[in-house]
Amino acid sequence: MNPDEKEDCECAPPQAESNPTGGYDRLQEESTFENAEASRMKRAAAKHLIERYYHQLTEGCGNESCSNDCCASCPSFHRMDNNAAAVKALELYKVNAKLCDPHPSKKGTSSAYLENSSINSTGHHNLACGNRKMNHKELHPVREDFKDVSFLTEEKVYEILESCGEKEDYSPLIRVIGRVFSSAEGLVQSFRRSKQHTKEELKSLQAKDEDKDEDEKEAATAAAGSASAMEEGGMDLEASSSSQPGDGGDGQKLGPDEVSVDIEAVRRVYWRLLCNEKVEAAFLNALVYLSPNVECDLTYHNVYSRDPNYLNLFVIVMENSNLHSPEYLEIALPQFCKAMSKLPLPAQAKLARLWARYRTDQIRRMMETFQQLITYKVISNEFNSRNLVNDDDAVVAATKCLKIVYYANVLGGDMDTEHNEEEDEEPLPESSDLTLQELLGEERRNKKGPRVDPLETELGARVSDCRRPLIPFEEFINEPLNDILEMDKDYTFFKVETENKFSFMTCPFILNAVTKNLGLYYDNRIRMYSERRITVLYSLVQGQQLNPYLRLKVRRDHIIDDALVRLEMIAMENPADLKKQLYVEFEGEQGVDEGGVSKEFFQLVVEEIFNPDIGMFTYDESTRLFWFNPSSFENEGQFTLIGIVLGLAIYNNCILDVHFPMVIYRKLMGKKGTFRDLADSHPVLSQSLKELLEYEGSVEEDMMITFQISQTDLFGNTLMYDLRENGDKIPVTNSNRKVSGRVISAAFMGAAAGESVLIYSFANCTE
After folding, report:
1. Which segments show compositional bias classed as Acidic residues (predicted)?
2. How far apart are CA 745 and CA 524, in angstroms?
3. pLDDT score, position 389
4. Of all helices (H) and strands (E), which one includes residue 160?
């Protein structure tokens, strides 16, 4: 070989100097270096192939129709533990077994295996001098391309950013972002937060590490024993089952609202990167590639139950402040919403609890992102009775994602989970005899009660427990969606369980009052028609007189007496008749009730009932609200009938001009009235109690008040009430003034004679 040929051969040693004394020694040293370098390359190639065999045995290639019996993706493959897989990998290496090509959709395949194709499985025994010699100058550009980066940390991003800034070439950063943010595994491992362990936790982790080291030593011993039989021998093998950096495999237990992502680091990284348009395009393209694979994982592979850290990728993606931009609305965001809507209930609940700790502006940004997608899809498509919005996957998925944000908004608000009314201890035993209604499937369906949102059950908190959310509920209403929603079809999807379509009634927060009222109207009408059909069947079977309507015949001058007496008889004899359609007749007047007569009847009844001269309710001029008169002469039966009248009005789709404070509706939802509700119903009393509780002087000496209150009756007489036994003799002091405030609040919130009865009867009639 002439000198020129030697220069062309990169693995050939340098030419010897002409010095006769040192030439032989130099040639011998260079020959030794060449042999050592070749041996090192052989070991590296063998190690790489064995690792690929190991990953193929433990994780597979990602191709579900793989026919390789030595691949975990093959349907006929028998699973094995990590130690057995390590030994099997060595055996496959010795026989030069088939290696599968990594499938693009495989999440468990490291990007290092996807990028590194320099070593071929069929040529691992043939490393001749034609291969490139891997000196330091040739390895340096590979490190600058960051091809070995399979996950990201804040420090790594800044390192890549600095390197790209020096060369004014951001293509390596764009490739890294595209590779990591399009890989579920890479994104799950990225931006892990470090935990400061206590001494006890450090001791526990140290003990676990010692046990783990012993297991790894056993696996390494078995692998070394197999490797010694190979002709190459002497290879330095690492335990393939060891966790990668950022795995979060430190054994730390996360709380119900905690994730292993350093959210603040993610926000800082986004803030640094999103100012570059090319980098922003990389995020967009990566999300388009990532979302279908994530949706497949959640739908078919149950990946969250195997790795709860899978939730990290949703947390990271949702921190992207550009998700609402037009570029995302067409493809990327709809696909991501579809994937996110496939999350199981525990994962959705954990997301809601996590986001509940966010600031209001951060929750608002996520809400506006999903709202904008819904509005964009509604406006850009022509929906009608044939092309229903319920069939649009993007709108449905965005609504489901918006529900998670909605519950985060509720949980992050002012919650009151303690003051609940006592529920019935045990339900009444069901009879084995079936009635006609039950045979028709009506009554048993109604016994199920109102449908409860599964996510609400998973969270263990009700929307009614929230006094004040972070964002007003009105902002979650989407008006364009309400304008095109076919409520009759949507109600059918909601009621018929066999229908496999989405109903927006399962997400009532997005509907306005008009749409909800229309849904309630359909529900009430169907019940009326059901009662009418059952009445006809009863008349045919039992020979009863046909009476499909709830008829009320009243006199205008005695409308209260006639209506209440008639309703009392119906409630006692046959309460099921209250579900029939109301038909009102005014005595001595001609006319057919097509709805107008019923509305006039309810308006007259309400005007009469809430007349302050009757004394059932009191009117507060400052708040313009009604409250129960504690000194009313009416008995509980009268309040019961008033509750029935109000329930019938709603049931028959009649809107009444009734002004109650919010605490009444909270009681309808099963909550108790508390001191905080006084500010709405009795503002003067609430302010007085606040001043009492905040008074810094001596309450007993300066105010001289006792556990006794006074009220004025209809005739202007002052009536005294003891809040405790012998309350007029118990002074209010600095030590017991909090007790005094609670007792007074309870007295005004629950002492009215007809309050609980009215609410109970009203609730029964409106269920």
Report:
1. 1-10
2. 37
3. 95
4. helix 154-167
Q: What's the rounded Cα separation, in Å, for the pair 30 and 561? A: 117
- Determine the Cα angle at 611 with ends 610 and 612, to 5°: 105
Residue 750 CA: distances (Å) to CA of 320, 347, 415, 677, 738: 50, 40, 21, 12, 18
Using only the alpha carbons of the chain, give its radius of gyration: 38
Asked if residue 416 lies in contact with residue 674, where contact means CB atoms within 8 angstroms, the answer is yes
Q: Which two tokens stand for residue 363?
A: 């929750």
Distance CA 163, CA 591 (A): 88
Which single residue is written with the structure tokens 């680091």? 265
Q: What is the pLDDT of residues 411-462, one digit of tens each?
A: 999 988 776 766 544 444 444 444 545 544 444 445 556 788 999 999 998 8
DSSP code at position 660? -
Residues 6+ apart with CB under 8 A from 393: 334, 338
Q: What is the Cα–Cα distance from 142 to 168, expressed in whole angstroms? A: 17
Task: At 436, give phi and psi (nearest 5°).
Answer: -65, -40
Q: What angle do CA 537, 538, 540 make, to 5 degrees?
A: 65
Q: Which residues pair with 551 in a beta bridge?
A: 583
**SS3 letters across 270-339:** HHHHCCCHHHHHHHHHHHHHHHHHHHHHHHHHCHHHHCHHHHHHHHHHHCCCCCCCHHHHHCHHHHHHHH
Residue 468, H or E segment? strand 466-468
d(CA 529, CA 549): 10
Tokens of 766: 């409106």
Specify whether the backbone of 181 is left (phi greater than 0), alpha (psi in -120 to 50) or beta. Answer: alpha
The CA distance from 579 to 518, in Å, is 18
By the 8 A CB rule, do 31 and 13 touch? yes
101's tokens: 């090509």
Contact 704, 731 (CB under 8 A): yes
CA distances from 47 to 98, 120, 375, 583 (A): 16, 13, 54, 87
Kindly state the tokens that stand for 102: 């990594």
**Pairing state of beta strands 581-586 and 617-620?**
unpaired
Domains of the chain: 3-142 (no CATH), 149-196+253-323 (no CATH), 356-421+436-547 (no CATH), 548-767 (3.90.1750.10)
Distances (CA, A) of 718 to 168, 306, 519, 621: 86, 70, 48, 20
Q: What is the dihedral angle through the alpha carbons of 74, 78, 82, 84, rounded to the nearest 10 degrees?
A: -120
DSSP letter assigned to residue 122? T
Query: DSSP of 23-91, one letter per residue?
Result: HHHHHHHHHHHHHHHHHHHHHHHHHHHHHHHHHHHHT--S-TT---TTSTTSTTPPP--HHHHHHHHHH
Q: What is the average pLDDT across 651-659? A: 87
Q: Other CB atoms closer than 10 Å to residue 293's CB: what's the count? A: 18
* CA distance readout (Å), 374 to 455, 469, 479, 536, 579: 21, 22, 10, 46, 38
The pLDDT of residue 433 is 46
